What does this fold into?
Amino acid sequence: MVVEIRKRAVLPVAGMTCASCVAHVEEALNDVRGVKNVVVNLATGKAAVEYEPSLATLADMKKAVDEIGYEVVLATANLQVTGMTCASCVENVQKTVASLPGVAKVVVNLASESARVSYLPEITSISEIKKAVQEIGYGAVERVEGQEALDREKEARQREIRRQLINMIIAWSIGSLVMIGTFQPYWFLPNIVPEWMNNKVFLFLLTTPIVFGPGRQFFVNSWNGLKHGLTDMNLLYATGIGAAYLIAIINTFWPDAGFGGREATFYEAAALLTAFIILGRYLEAVTRGRTSEAIRRLMKLQPKLARVLRDGQELEIPAEEVMVDDILAVRPGEAIPVDGLVTEGYSSVDQSMITGESIPVEKKASDEVIGGTFNKTGAFKFRATRVGKDTALAQIIKLVEDAQTTKAPIQKLADQVAGHFILGVHALALGVFLFWFFVGYANWFSPESRLILTPYLLTGMGVFGFALLTSVTVLIISCPCAVGLATPSAVMAGSGKGAEHGILFKGADAMEATAKLQAIIFDKTGTLTKGEPTVTDVVASGGLSQEEILRLAAAAEWHSEHPLGEAIVRGAQERGLYLEDVDSFNAIPGHGVEVRLNGQSILLGNRKLMAERDVPLDGLLPQAERLEQEGKTVMFLAMAGKPGGIVAVADTLKETSAQAVKELHHMGLKVAMITGDNRRTAEAIAQQVGIDRVLSEVLPEDKANEVRKLQGEGLKVAMVGDGINDAPALAQADVGIAIGSGTDIAKETGHVILIKDDLMDVVAAIQVARQTLRLIKQNLGWAFGYNTLSIPIGAGLLYPFFAQMVSPELAALLMAISSLSVTMNTLRMRGYVPPIRRRRLQEAMA
Amino acid sequence: MKSSIISAAIYLGISLTAALIFLGVTLMGNYTWVARIGGSLWIFLLSNIVLMPVVIPWVKKRGEI
It folds into this structure.
């Protein structure tokens, strides 16, 4: 009889508003295989579910609900996971946490030593998650944010560096003696090293504290993993060190056992293997910290003190105690503690650390200042608008931190390979042992052969000793540490580098997608152009004067928030025209406005609007066409169904638009422009900027469709636009780039956020992403290349031809070099400046 | 029965069988006893390491059904 073990979970579901929502959610959950009984409560917003854990997971249920437009709201925990050294550790932690019943998703990042867990606290508590991680041999604490996180992370890293340094000193100092003692009979050593140092019992006494001191961590950690059915790098090390040490003991105390006798004790193999592995760990701990330098620099920008004016007095208080609407004073040479608006004074502020802008920005009353930036010359006062976690700097840090805990699609493959690697390596070691035991030794073993870079002859080595040595070397040489570090370390460096230049990637996937872009669509107004159009021409007809036309148009647009409407109102005000309030106002998106003024109907808008309302434009069309060919936007005015005139408005291009488009073309990207303007106006603008593909007369709600059409051509498309107004198109694009977000980063919907309103940053973002992807590919190429080459050599492929074997300690050295080279390659990103930025800097200096 | 005991019985059983097969094969050749016993132990150890991560989750999963 099969007994079904059912579990019960209560899922908080957001977005349900009516009974049909309840039915939808119930249906979606019931469709999940393994879900047996669903009761959804609209009032509490919860779904009670009975399910079979072997068939249905929380992730399945969440997916089912999310797919139909609702959301299972889960708690998110950010854990700092210590003790992970390779991709298998990542896989182990991920597997362990994901197997907990209340966990829907977990992303573990080796480079940032973090785990982000989406879970249901009612089923699994955070302490249970931490306990599960600790049980398999890793440390787990909840991550904290800001300066405290920086301090804690720094402390943990220094503790790890100190621990490995002590281990390294012990292993290397004693290991060197073991090596000198082992090689005492060779080269010139008999002249300077006493013979007793080669005594095997003496070497045994020296090696034992290395294996059970610094080497103990590998045995303990691998056992902790094995108990839960998990294998990691520690197991490779433990088997390797343990086997070498065991052979040495047998050869010392039972020299005739057939392992090569006293001349092949391999104490130095066990000792130096431990020493090299620990050297690798130490160097990794030191260099890994450097890949997250950019975020550290950002965190350090957070000022500690602020001068607040309270009751007419200037008080110095901790920056975190500043409240919104506090008035703060900033003196020359001081850092600005929080975000705010200047109330009095004048100064220039260095904002390069946030926006990447190299030239200081002038600040006067009502200008915005950003917390963490540096006041250069004058003194000023400002009113705090955003404090604590809401400041731009805090939001940037959070965004970059979040991005660093995500995984790029390219990493998933690497993780999958590395996850099964350890098992595969042990199986391979088994195969290699059997091959050399039954086939290889009899056919190719030569007593004159030796280990590479050692004076050892393998004369006395028996079949078991030789097969075991080869098998152990395979275990050691195959470490996938480099594979595990390849992607996350590059993503950390890349996202940090982006942040340095005011380019924020929301995740590793956004970075990878940006690097692979083939086409870019720019929104016209406010993106390619300044978004501040001005009235350039007024054409009157039907007996009205130009002033009258402009006055009526401005009155019609008085309540409009459209940039073109605002331009007309501004134009009328500048000419000193009196504007009357309208009786009624109706905005027709993508077409124009319809108002009633003094009982009369007035229409102001494009051709479409006039055509829909049957307004004859014949007399105005030649002039309209001329204006449109000049790149101006034409708006027709009609009164009581009769044409009244034309108001032409033109928006000026941003200084860098044409150059940015040229650069993008140069980088091999297709560039398009999307606008609500008619074809002629749009083409005129596009021609000025150098854009060859124009998507004109597109209504705001259709922008996403246009993006989809381009994607349908098989192109990876980015949409560059205003983060708020163009949200659907930004979301539809493979990469949504929100430009000119300024300091309100949290509101943005794009995948990439550009703090400055500079199109050259689009170019810089692609350059940073491409450089990061290049680094990832180099790292992965090196890591996989190393393993592809080293494993056959370690397995003795070259032995039949050259009679040379790789020793276990040489294998450990090669392995340490491979992961170190990946980290060093990533560190090259520290000095990277996007070429476009470097060129502009050089131009500015010249 | 607890899944950990079932798992242990499976992976230890298979590893032991593999080690015994190895021993049996070596008995047919001209090997020293150290090579035979040492080899069998190494086969037993590596087989355990390969089998444990495969068997333990498999047994656990079946136990939940």
User: Anything to note?
Assistant: Chain A touches chain B through 32 residues (CB under 8 Å).
